[in-house]
Write a sequence for this structure.
């Protein structure tokens, strides 16, 4: 059974800024999706914000095992109803891989219970991402660190709950530091945050970056037998009667 | 400097159910507050849901170091605007001690990012709370376990994020189990959940239970020097210029 | 590539106590191993304490992806040198699934950094294991709870480091509670503890118990590309020169 | 009741290297201890490696609430018996604040269950320590980041168990990153690691560094009522008979 992946993308910068369109002629989502499609165990579709229901019909949401999320300039335009559906789907087991400026998305903030705020600067400086949990499946094939020649800076304090695992920490030429790869669980769902991906740089053409996303998708996939936790009133003796 | 505590209470069961009023003639909040008032280092006020703004004016919220929260039948009547203010105050450092059925309060759900659902049964059965992190300040003075003769049952799965610390786990006569004492941090604020406290039992007259609440209040108090993390754009070189 | 599993077993109770031999005629290790051998993705061998080097030659250790460990009456007879080798192998990525009385094994204590002590009683009482992290791969196929009709009791306080994930919590007829399913990482290796398995009960013939062990083995398997973190002195400029 | 602090120090570099002696004429321990002695709530003594029993008699160990630990060139000379005593004392509730090269001490490795290895370079470069958990008592009074003009570099991967809290992360001029402030609990004891403090730089004269150490000592202090968890066999019915 393949993992059903939905690569969700805001897809607005590419339409308004020729520089972004030049780097990502088909959109950032296609750069990511076309990489993931090479894997036999992944079944990949894309969805974008300006589609009907942001491309996220009930059918798409229910039949997605893992969603990746990139948004930036239009977080507030994402409908609360869709966010609510995504939230419940994560609690039921859908994995969520939040990319770069997706830190400020409604769905990430709702799942974290914090502001997810940070410092930033888009000067295109060198980012080094250091592996702080070697052996973790998300950094499979990434041995010690990765270098991205030009990226936006994100700096601490990053207002997130203490991660269950911090697998990458970045340093920038300017001297800042950032927890760039983190994981949490909410309900039955697994959530990963992965920092790189400013729209003005060709980050999603970087093979190491794509590899981490691919790994994260596999890590976030739900267990093969869906769990259905039950809640509510239990009469005395129910355990014996079963 | 004393810790400024606000004991927040729904205060409806006592007005509608004579049995509850008999156990808590002045309300559950007064049972808790009158215990806390005995401590020299705590400055205690109460606030209840049917007061103006639920008793939570901006002034009260800003001047509260730690809030305790009990609600049950009227969670949905708590105004979203007040919840939003409480949320931001926790991120700025206010401690929050969520009691019993407060697990379903809007503020707890918002901070957790999960449904906080569970199993339950109100047959008045024996609860034993086992200390799973001896030495933790919240169980200071509680050595191995506490017994409550009659309580409501809460059972797993309790849909919360993995606690940063689980300091108490309960077992009930019926055979269920529950993570009854848990902690998390969100922003600068510390959050504790403590399970016991069904309105039909005299749980908040139990000295061990009151001791845990008192300990939790001290544990959740913010650091003496308030921190003010800053976010947003940083020009290159700002670190050197400072 | 199959996961190479070594089922390690003390294998002494079976030889000395006819009751144990009756339940496990070929030893507990064979009960576990014969279940695991049914899975196509697992390559299973066994090793026992009274073999040369406890059945753990350098070759066996290096070629094991995940080891399960059951010991009880002879922990102190396990050679320190072998423990040291296992410890380094875990840090290099070998998964370790510690079963029942293995909580007191040298290797588990060394990896935890705590005493791993607990309360116990072997009266053969009912154990209910409640799933506290549904959706976790180790409880794949186990929906809400499992019941074992007769088992030894283990009770809190269990002196372990705060688990990274607590996926099962047990309650016993006597009223005690125990964190029965926990995970940690040490170096590149993943470690799971799973409580049931007293030698006087047919626990390792229980299909749910076997399923959890099988799941744990898969969960603990190292990433497909072995990581080799490097340490030590780095000259200034090494990052640029690479 | 004051917190009884023992500042433990290897105290060998100062005797062999005039440069170190010039920076710390009375030893690094006195730089730390003389700062801590200014606080009314701390009762401070020192102990050094070349004293009898490393200055750590049973009486000193039993009457220490929090110990700070700096060692570097002589870790292997610390007697195993003393390490064993320190280990049990931590499990019973003594706080431990491990400084800089203490990462390789026997006691830290034993409590962590990992190698605690890292990358390093002693070129005297700029270190910036970023606060990643504002509001935490250990960074009380440290708002956003601290700068140390010249320090040794420590770089990831730092082979430690996932910290329960990471309160500081460093970046260095050379581009490396390091989790410089971390906490764990073992048994009843709290453990903090704090990175800065190479012997060739006046780091322990830096007021911010001293403040973090002072905060860490207070954070690591045991609860006011000592807990005494008990283990071992419990007869059926013991809970009712109490």
């Amino acid at each position: 059974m393949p993992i059903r992946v939905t690569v969700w993308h805001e897809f607005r910068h590419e339409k308004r800024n020729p520089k972004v369109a030049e780097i990502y002629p088909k959109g950032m989502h296609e750069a990511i999706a076309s990489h993931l499609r090479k894997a036999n165990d992944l079944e990949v579709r894309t969805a974008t914000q300006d589609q009907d229901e942001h491309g996220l019909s009930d059918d798409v949401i229910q039949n997605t095992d893992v969603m990746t999320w990139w948004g930036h300039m239009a977080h507030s335009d994402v409908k609360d109803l869709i966010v609510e559906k995504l939230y419940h789907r994560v609690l039921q087991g859908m994995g969520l891989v939040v990319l770069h400026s997706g830190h400020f998305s409604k769905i990430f903030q709702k799942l974290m219970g914090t502001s997810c705020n940070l410092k930033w600067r888009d000067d295109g400086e060198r980012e080094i991402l250091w592996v702080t949990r070697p052996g973790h499946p998300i950094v499979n094939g990434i041995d010690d660190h990765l270098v991205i020649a030009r990226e936006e800076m994100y700096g601490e304090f990053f207002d997130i709950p203490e991660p269950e695992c911090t697998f990458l920490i970045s340093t920038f030429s300017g001297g800042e530091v950032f927890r760039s790869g983190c994981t949490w669980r909410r309900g039955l769902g697994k959530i990963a945050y992965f920092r790189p991906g400013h729209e003005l740089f060709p980050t999603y053409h970087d093979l190491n970056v794509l590899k981490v996303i691919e790994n994260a998708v596999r890590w976030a996939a739900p267990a093969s037998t869906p769990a259905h936790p039950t809640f509510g009133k239990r009469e005395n003796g129910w355990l014996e009667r079963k």
